[in-house]
Each structure stands twice: as C-alpha cells, then as structure tokens.
Amino acid sequence: MIVSRRSKRWFYLYIPLGAILIGTLFPFYWMGVTAFRPDRELYVAWNQPNFNPFFTLRPTLEHFAFLFQETLFKRWLLNTLFISLLSTGISLFCGLLAGYAIARLRFPLAGPIGTWIFITYLVPPTLLFIPLGEVVRTFHLGDTPWALILTYPTFLIPFCTWLLMGYFRTIPKELEECAQIDGASRLQAMVRIVFPLALPGILSAGIFAFTLSWNEFLYALIFISSAHQKTVSVGVVSELVRGDTFFWGSLMAGALMGSVPVAFIYSFFVEQYVSALSGAVKG
Amino acid sequence: MNWYRRVTPRERQEWFFAFCLLSPAVLMLSIFVLYPFSKGLWLSVLNTEVAIPGEFIGLKNFIKLWNDQIFRRTAQNTILYTIAATILKLGLGMIVALLLNQLIGFKRIIRASMLLPWIVPTILSALAWKWMFDPTFSVISFFLFHLGITSKQISWLGGPVLSLTSVIIVNAWRGMPFFAITLLAGLQTITPTLYEAAAIDGASGWQRFWYVTWPLLMPVTMVVVLFSVIMTFADFQLVYILTGGGPANSTHLFATYAYQIGIGTGKISEGAAVSLAMFPFLFLIVIFQLWYIRRGEEVKEESKKKRRGR
C-alpha cells in the first residue's frame, strides 16, 4: 500500500497538532462564550436538550456592565497595572546592576553571591508566605499596594539578574575597554555602552517580569484585605463569589478582562517572551 | 597572609563598584527572602497565633503534624501530584515540541497560541476550568456523553480521586506549553546532519528520537523538569480555586494546607511549620540542580580543552 507523503503529513502532524491546539485553547473559548451569554441560557444542565454550548444567538453585555458598574473592577485593573509596573521597574533596576556586577566585575564572593541569587530564584513564594506576612505587618505595609510592590521583586530580581547576566556575557568586553581608553569612567561605560546594547535583554526581562507580577495571586490574597486595594485576580475570586454562589457570567467576564491585557502585551512581544522563557532555563 | 597588601587601588576600586551595584539587589533579597526565611524557622518552634505572641515549644508543631492524618494525606497528595503532572507535562510537551519542529507554515501564530495557557493568569484560567467541571453544567460531560463514553452525571471535583485527577489535568494543561517551548528551543539547536547520518545508517524514526534527540536534549530537559518539579510541588493556586483542599481535606497540597491552618484558622506557627515541611525536598532538588549545572559546565570546559589540544 502506498501512502502518499501528503496524507502521512496530515496523519502525523496536522491532525495531532490540531487536536492538541483545540484542547489548549478550548478553555479560553469557553470563557469567552460564557461571558457573553445571558443568564437564563447559562444555567441549563448539560443533559438538557436545549443545552447549546458553542455559541449564543442572544449575546449580551450585561455581565460586563455588572462588572464595571456594580464592582470595583476598574479600580482593580488600575491597582494591578500600578503594582506590576512599579515592581517590574524596581526589579529591572536591581537586576541590571547586579547582573552587570556578577557578569563583568572581579571581586571576592562573586561566585557565592551569584549562587545565592540563583537559589532565591528557586524559592517558591509558598515557602515563605506566612513569615513574609509577619514581616509586611512589622513594616506597617499591610493592605497597601506597597506590600506587593516590595515583595514581588523577591521572585522578579533573581529572574532579571539571571537573565541579564547571561545577556551581558554576550556583549564583547572590548567595547567597554575602548570607551574607558577614550576617557569614560567605568560607570559611564556601563550606562552608555553596555546597557543600550543589552536593550533586547532588558525588554525580555521586563515583559516577563510584568506578566509574572500581573499573574501573582498568593501574596495579593494575603497582604491585601480591603476591596478597593485588591488586584484583579484576587478581586474577581473574592468579590464575585458569595459563599457558595458563583456568578459565572460575570466571573468569566472578569477572567476575560483580566487576561486580555497580558495576552495583548504578549502578542506584541512573543519573540522576547519566548527568548526570556528559554533564556531563563538555559541560565 | 599578605593578601590584603597585594590588592591594588584599581582592584579596590572595582570591589567598591561591585559592592555598590550589588547592594540594591542584596538588600531587597535579604529583607524579603533571607529575613522571612529565618523568621519562618523561628515561628515554627513557637506557638504563635493571630494576636497571641506565643512561646517557645520546641519541635511540638512538627510532632503534631507527624501524627496528623490530614498532613500525611497532604504529603502523599503533593508527591503524587508532582510526579503525575510532571510526567504528563514532559510527555505532552515533548510531543508538541517535536510536532512544532516539523511545522513549516503558520509557525509563529501556532506557537504563540500554544503558549497562551502559560501566559494568562493561572487563577483566571483555573476559574474557567472550574466552570467546565461544574457537575450540572459541565461542557466536558456534554462532550463525553455525545461521544458515547458516559451517560451519567460526573462530579469532576466531587470525589477525592477524581478531583485530584482533575487538578492534575489542569496543571498539565497550564504547564505543558512551558515544556514545549523550551524543548523546541533545544530541538532547534540540534544540527540536521546528525539526523541525516542516522538515517543513512538505517535508523527508524523512533531510533532517531531515542539515540539522537533524547540524549542531546537531556540538559535542557533536566533543567525544565527540575524547575517544574519545584513549582508543581509548591503549587497553590489550582487547588485553592478548583477544590479548596476538599472534599473533606482530601486534595490538599502543602501550600494550601499551610494556608488553611496559618491564614484560615490563624494558627500562624503551625502554618509556618507546614510550609517548612516542603523545605527538605526543595533543598534536595536545588542541590541536585546546582550539581547538574556545575557538571555540565565542567564537561563543556573539558571538551573545549580537548579541542584546543588538537
């Protein structure tokens, strides 16, 4: 039996890939359909004859209207944006300087400090959240955005440092040495020559750090208690679920709105994101 | 012992510069990682509760945990969860990476949409899964019913076994793209000539994978697996949203159990002890990872020397 090359390609590549792709994306489709579906269509059991999962003929914006008018969703979006931008900024600043020092300068303890930063990269937030909560309380940061702006860098700085360190190593040393011969100080050579050349790396680290802080949940759940200080993920989970009642329409509308900003940024910088992702692993 | 004298002013200048550059990062990590860690160790030997300062009680918290049935169940769950989810992610991720590597058109768009589960806030996509798992309105049950696999109502998050399975599936769904994309990056560094050589020697597709791809991918695979094992072992969000540790505390992981005790019931010290129970395992993994990276670097150095020798 002769199997043509083309049908083989369908069988071994397109069909399995298509199936996996559908599995990967279906939850997002479902999220979207639910968000636009009116309530009376939503709560139809799956074994009823009129259960129609895939589309709705009466799309509605009522869940979005509820979200923006009846809850503090807009405020949560702004909070999350503010917190993510500031913590990314702080982490990039610390990571740039530390990454440069470890990659370029000779000093005692360079090895141990590098290893220590790598180890903190591997410390999961769930190991420290209870004592960290106590530390936040001691500094009187509880229930303010600063509790998150200052704690998110604990997992962002090691990541940024590690990524940028690798990036600095790819920039030839000679460039800096030339600048220094021309009379630039070490600091000037670093800021004027090395940092601009590392811009793609900085962008990768920044995008990755931003999505990580946008997506963070545990610290935001524990350190923030008042409704108007919450971030999107905590706000949606805690304010749209009353006891055992889930308002699925507005929950999915909130989930969609909370996902769109990161997906949007990501779609512009896929390449940077991917290079950060695989760079973080290669070290 | 005259190392101090041999330091030239230039070197000392460099040390000072390095010190200045490192201080912001080191300061932040000391206040918010090192200090909380030591504080956690200290809390775990006290009996602090919310608004009660607590006294030193030695290892009583840990002894209590050792005799706690729920804690034992939690430990079992966490190990099972980590192993099952990691195997699933590695298997699926490898398949996807191999498929994507053969793709010619639409590469970017397909790769980008494959990564979406990893980009989107986990808590929000977990909510979508919770809705898909809803016993009465489950779209998954609808599919299975129409494919003729089941005719009953399935309570996806109801029973202990099925609910842990469901959480494992969602974890694999979320983590698979990370495996796929990093393995794909690894695959692209393998030169096609190796496959051509293997094909000339008459290797089958499977043999080419097993004797060429797999060993060459090993370093990347190891790093990804170890990283993912740490994050899966310490996972919180999926269980928090999907089952909340229930039914009857049967699906807790260390992190969710620590949350329930430490934050939920306010027994801060006991909660800190539960969190710290993760530490020995994480410590072993990190040590192993450091050792593996060092070894990789040594191998690289040696092969460089050999090449120079020729």
Write the layout of secondary structure elements.
The complex is a heterodimer of chains A (283) and B (310).
Chain A: H1 5-35, H2 39-42, H3 62-70, H4 73-104, H5 110-121, H6 125-138, H7 145-151, H8 153-169, H9 173-181, H10 186-197, H11 199-215, H12 218-223, H13 232-239, E1 241-242, E2 245-246, H14 248-268, H15 270-282
Antiparallel strand pairs in A: 1-2
Helix pairs in contact in A: 1-14, 3-14, 4-7, 4-8, 4-11, 5-8, 8-11, 9-10, 11-15, 13-14
Chain B: H1 9-43, H2 60-66, H3 69-102, H4 107-114, H5 116-119, H6 122-132, H7 139-146, H8 160-187, H9 192-200, H10 205-233, H11 237-242, H12 254-264, H13 268-276, H14 279-309
Which structural traits does this protein have?
heterodimer; A: 283 residues; mainly alpha; 2 domains; two-stranded antiparallel ribbon; globular; B: 310 residues; MetI-like fold; 14 helices
Can you offer a commentary on this structure?
- The complex is a heterodimer of chains A (283) and B (310).
- Chain A is mainly α and 283 residues long.
- Chain A contains 15 helices and 2 strands.
- Chain A has 2 domains: 1-35; 64-282, MetI-like fold (Orthogonal Bundle), CATH 1.10.3720.
- In chain A, strands 1-2 form a two-stranded antiparallel sheet.
- In chain A, a hairpin with a 2-residue loop joins strand 1 (241-242) and strand 2.
- With 310 residues, chain B is mainly alpha-helical.
- Chain B has a domain at 72-277: MetI-like (MetI-like fold, Orthogonal Bundle), CATH 1.10.3720.10.
- Chain B contains 14 helices and no strands.
- Chain B is flat, with a radius of gyration of 25 Å.
- The model of chain B has no long low-confidence stretch (mean pLDDT 88).
- At the A-B interface, helix 1, helix 4, helix 5, helix 6 and helix 8 of A face helix 1, helix 3, helix 4, helix 5 and helix 6 of B.
